[in-house]
């Protein structure tokens, strides 16, 4: 999976997979709740996720492939091909 995420998108994902609700993440980023919800939906579309949980797995998988470490405590991430 080759996906280019902006720094803002990565920050948002780190908050979400770290357990922050949309409301908490919006407050921390200084944006409106509705804006946060729209950003999350855009990220789900961009990564091909069908749920918030799958979004976390796909992001963890992306970080692993890039050699980084996602903050999620999720078990084994699934590949995008398996998620479809």
TrEMBL record:
Keywords (A to Z) from UniProt: DNA-binding, Transcription, Transcription regulation
Domain HTH luxR-type per the UniProt entry, residue ranges: 1-63
Record InterPro entries: Sig_transdc_resp-reg_C-effctor (IPR016032), Tscrpt_reg_LuxR_C (IPR000792), WH-like_DNA-bd_sf (IPR036388)
GO-annotated biological processes: regulation of DNA-templated transcription
Name of one Pfam family that matches: GerE
A GO term for molecular function: DNA binding
PANTHER family: DNA-BINDING TRANSCRIPTIONAL ACTIVATOR DEVR_DOSR (PTHR44688:SF16)
Protein name in UniProt: Transcriptional regulatory protein TdiR
Source organism phylogeny: Bacteria, Pseudomonadati, Planctomycetota, Planctomycetia, Pirellulales
